[in-house]
Amino acid sequence: MSELLNKSLKTLELPRVLEMLAEFAVSAEAKERCLALRPASDIEEAAMRQNQTGAARAMLELRGSPALSGVKPVAAALSRADLGGVLNTRELLDIAATLRAARTVKAYSAAHKGREEPSEMDGLFRRLIGDKPLEDHITGCILSEEEIADHASGELASVRRQIKTVNNKIRETLNRFISSQGKYLQDALITQRGGRFVIPVKSEHKNDVPGLLHDVSSSGATLFIEPTAVVNASNELRELEGKERKEIERILAELSAECDGSGGLILEDYEILVTIDTIFARAKLASDMGASQPILGQDGVTDLRNARHPLLPKGTAVPVSVWLGKRFDTLVITGPNTGGKTVTLKTLGLLTLMAACGLHIPAGEGSEVAFCNAVYADIGDEQSIAQSLSTFSSHMRNIVAILEAAEPDSLVLFDELGAGTDPVEGAALAVAIIEQARAQGCRVAATTHYAELKTYAMSTPGVENASCEFDVETLRPTYRLLIGVPGRSNAFAISQRLGLPGHIIDAAKQRVGVRDAAFEDILTKLESQRTLLENDRAEAERALRQSEADKRKSEELRALTEREYGKAAESARVEARRIINEARAAAEEAAREIARAKQAASAEELAQTRRKLNEAEDELNGELKPETPEENLFERPPNPGTEVMLAATSTRAVVLGSPDKNGMIPLQAGIMKITASLNDLRPCPPKKEKKSGSVSLASAPEPVSTEVDLRGQPADDGVLLMERFIDDAVMRKLETVTVIHGKGTGALRAAVQAALKKNKSVKGFRLGRYGEGEAGVTVVTLR
């Protein structure tokens, strides 16, 4: 990427957005890749990145983030193994952690396979391989960076048993010596010097204790002597320790050779995991910003709806809607200083770059971004005393470089174009520069204070005015961008509000040219008309929204009525069918009893009984609408506040007032207000008490991560937070989660594990292995 493009990226503050992105990455390599992210070179790659971000965001919201904390840099270690080198325990544990991460991420993908639509992430998940046997071999042999397991090999286990035996023998011998010759010793203890067991002997008794002198205290009063009785045993111990080191070297060499044999697959898994980590970082940033996926296009159309600059606070930033490339390819923005012109320019450029990088943008749904081969920006004051450059000279140097580098479909942004020199010449230069950029096929957005550029935009096809709104009453900008309206200077109005005497303002107005005054008057009239039109449009939109809300309420009530009616009818049918079946069964049984008791009863009589039962069933199978007894009707309208029931749907409602002239009574049914006639109402039966143990359905749980961090929490609060987290994880059907409690004093860990033993949703738990956080985390398996 050229120096000019890099300068434009810094001017538009893309590196600061990438720093925010890197905060969401887990692995060190993914963080570096986030910081090095640059716009895609073609629209296909940009679209693929956008789709990957969208797919990862959907997964994030549905099932949380995959466990990527075990992804470690392994390329250097595998390169050494390829050259025949022996890897150390840390390098081997890093490889095992990466293999474990590949396996768990693949399982994360497989857990919802078939339940979701295919996405751009599927190919990455499918390419993950993992190597469970190698992972288990490494973690089975290496317990930590400092310890090799006894069962790593039979030889190692045998040597360590011998070492333990010799150690015990030496200590027993020395303990007997201390017991019998304690008067010669400075202290009754066994210590080591140079890896040999020694005892502290008083200097005056050095000839009374035969053995090898290994050390003398700083005062000279104590000699550290290895008694002759243990010299041979100590020599044997040194030999065994040498054998142990050789066996450990052999085990590490064997593991290194296994890693070398699978080196290519491990490296491929590592690259895929880093890529997945980077994509999920983009998804997390999008969720944090409340961003949306833009529509990328090559037709030159950019349409940003309610866009926010990502570096401004979400709560205070005023959204701006800006478009370019539909009816015009050049936008000239005017308005007062601090009115938001430069922020609008930067928002347009930065969001274009973010879209090309595969980042979702903080703008409304349906926003479009034209893919650009380059974005060039001349924004800010870069005057340099050292280089003898004025503001005008520094701007012009940038503009010259931009015009030389710009190609068709480039986006060019100019801030305060033509400023810093004579206004007449500056305005003329500004128009000529814009025309040159347009002739080269570029899309242009420029800010200015020159009235000549407002006239140029009004009279030139493909060029449009825009302005940043300013409230003269409060002397504050509103930061709203008004496309199609040139900005006013507001100098006279602002000066008057600030207390400048009227005669001075009148004198200034007389010095303004006739054409300039007429132009300002036209702008004032346009501004008044625009305000009236906006007010009318806002009122029309409010009325439309109210109409749509009323329509939705009506449709919801109708749907509710139909559902309740259907439920009531079906319930009546089921109940009638049950009664019929019970009656028929009882009659059949009675008929059989009669037949058995009175054998004289003829078959004809039995058949006749059955016919009567069938006729009764046919009558009950007719219309099952229960007739309303007259006593259930209201004799007079119920008083306001009375609870009643709608006869058609059995829906409860509250009377709001007296009947209108048409006899319709106003009611409140749930959140809706309705009317009904007196004949449609029935007295409300007493409410049935809810049975204990009834369960209400809560709304769907929020996306849950696969780990919870309790560090810094009191034990009771930490346990409560963990139990809520486990409940959410069980609802999400997660199999394994991680509880981070830190090492500390161990009090929080003890409380967590005590609670886990009692939790019926927990199948089992263990402390973390190397790469998982070791004793600082507990890995929980759920039922």
Write structural notes for this entry:
The chain has 783 residues and is of the alpha/beta class. Strands 12-13-14-10-15-16 form a 6-stranded mixed sheet, with helices on both faces. A hairpin with a 2-residue loop joins strand 19 (664-669) and strand 20 (672-677). The model is unreliable at 383-388, 623-631 and 689-702 (pLDDT under 50).
Based on the model shown, name its key terms.
783 residues, 6-stranded mixed sheet, 5-stranded antiparallel sheet, 25 strands
| Separation, N- and C-terminal Cα atoms | 53 Å
Uncertain segments are 383-388, 623-631, 689-702
Estimated helix fraction: 40-55%
**Helix count?**
21
What would you call the structural class?
alpha/beta
Strand order of the largest sheet: 12-13-14-10-15-16
Report the count of strand segments: 25
Nearest-integer average pLDDT: 83
Radius of gyration: 42 Å
For the sheet with most strands, the description reads: 6 strands, mixed
Beta content comes to 15-25%
Shape: flat
What's the short story on this structure?
This protein is an alpha/beta fold and 783 residues long.
Per-chain topology:
Blueprint: H1 3-11, H2 14-23, H3 28-35, H4 43-63, H5 75-82, H6 89-110, H7 122-127, H8 132-141, E1 142-144, E2 147-148, H9 154-180, E3 191-193, E4 196-202, E5 211-216, E6 222-227, H10 231-261, H11 263-289, E7 295-297, E8 302-307, E9 320-324, E10 330-334, H12 341-357, E11 368-370, E12 375-378, H13 391-405, E13 411-414, H14 423-439, E14 443-447, H15 451-459, E15 463-471, E16 476-483, H16 491-497, H17 502-511, H18 514-597, H19 603-620, E17 643-646, E18 651-655, E19 664-669, E20 672-677, E21 681-683, E22 707-709, H20 715-731, E23 736-740, H21 747-758, E24 762-767, E25 777-782
Parallel strand pairs: 7-11, 10-14, 10-15, 12-13, 13-14, 22-23
Antiparallel strand pairs: 1-2, 3-4, 4-6, 5-6, 8-9, 15-16, 17-18, 17-21, 18-19, 19-20, 23-25, 24-25
Helix pairs in contact: 2-3, 2-11, 3-11, 4-11, 5-10, 6-8, 6-11, 8-10, 9-10, 14-15, 18-19, 20-21
